[in-house]
Amino acid sequence: MTDTSNEEGSISVEQRGHILLIGLNRPAKYNGYTPTMAKQLLEAYTRLDESDDLFVGVLFGHGDHFTAGLDLPKWTGRMESESDPDASAEPRVDPIALGRACRKPIVTAVQGITFTFGIEIALAGDIVIAADNCRFSQLEPARGIHATGGATIRFVQRGGWGNAMYHLLTSDEFDAQEAYRIGFVQEVVPAGTQLERAIEIAEVIAAQAPLAVQATKAASRRFVEEGFAAAVRELGPTQRRLLASEDAKEGVQSFIERRTAVFKGV
């Protein structure tokens, strides 16, 4: 009997303290992304978003590559259909953040081949750590289609118009240093250390006050999505809510007592 789980891949999930490690797990196929993996990734991101004891997510790819992108033959039917088979279900967190976005920070570790969907899901998160052997490409126009996972938006947001058009319209392949130059990745590290470094950063974030971290991400997203005035309008009300939290009291008390704060997310 054929092992369809190996054919379709899976998403590994591991909780370490307040951090959720989420892994693309189809290494024999360069973590080519399938509908089965998509469903499991939705579930993992929703768990991260809704669990009070999870503060930060770390996304990574098993094996030598992050992902070669969508396994197109498995997606063609869905792309041609105007209906979403899961549309009637209660909205879950969208990993590419075009729908319901995750409230918690996400640090992504990428290595090797990081094509199309791989770039899009990395840019949908918050911080990207790249191995120095990364190969990036947003090559949809070379296949007769265009990117629908956020690349046409986030390339411009992160890299500016010229850099975005340079890479989007040529379907070229670029390396980790170019990704760093245009702001797609925040650090370039030796291959094999990218996940360790991503976890280190996640641990630093997880040690901050969770409600304040989430409010900070929300405020920045509000500026990007709604503009300057909307972002400014919410600064005061959000700060007042944070000041009423137990974590804010702990932050002040730890400062007075000259000790490390212990935050609980309340």
What do these coordinates show?
The radius of gyration is 19 Å and the shape is globular. By secondary structure, it is α/β, with parallel strands linked by helices. A six-stranded mixed β-sheet has the order 1-2-3-4-6-9, with helices on both faces. A three-stranded mixed β-sheet has the order 5-7-8. The protein has helices at residues 4-8, 35-50, 72-80, 117-124, 151-159, 161-170, 176-181, 194-206, 210-226, 228-243, 246-257; strands at residues 10-16, 19-25, 56-61, 106-110, 113-115, 127-131, 135-137, 173-175, 187-189. The termini are far apart. Strand 2, helix 2 (35-50) and strand 3 form a beta-alpha-beta unit. It contains eleven helices and nine strands. Belongs to the enoyl-CoA hydratase/isomerase family. It holds the Pfam family ECH_1.
Brief summary:
The protein has helices at 4-8, 35-50, 72-80, 117-124, 151-159, 161-170, 176-181, 194-206, 210-226, 228-243, 246-257; strands at residues 10-16, 19-25, 56-61, 106-110, 113-115, 127-131, 135-137, 173-175, 187-189.
Topology, element by element:
Blueprint: H1 4-8, E1 10-16, E2 19-25, H2 35-50, E3 56-61, H3 72-80, E4 106-110, E5 113-115, H4 117-124, E6 127-131, E7 135-137, H5 151-159, H6 161-170, E8 173-175, H7 176-181, E9 187-189, H8 194-206, H9 210-226, H10 228-243, H11 246-257
Parallel strand pairs: 2-3, 3-4, 4-6, 5-7, 6-9
Antiparallel strand pairs: 1-2, 7-8
Class computed from helices, strands and strand pairing: alpha/beta
CATH class type of the largest domain? Alpha Beta
Give the overall shape.
globular
How many beta-strand elements? Answer: 9
Secondary-structure element sequence? Answer: HEEHEHEEHEEHHEHEHHHH
CATH superfamily of the largest domain: 2-enoyl-CoA Hydratase, Chain A, domain 1
The domain tally reads 2
Within the largest sheet, what's the order of strands? 1-2-3-4-6-9
Radius of gyration: 19 Å
Protein name: Crotonase/enoyl-CoA hydratase family protein
Family: Belongs to the enoyl-CoA hydratase/isomerase family.
InterPro entries: ClpP/crotonase-like_dom_sf, Enoyl-CoA_hydra/iso, Enoyl-CoA_hydra_C
Pfam families: ECH_1
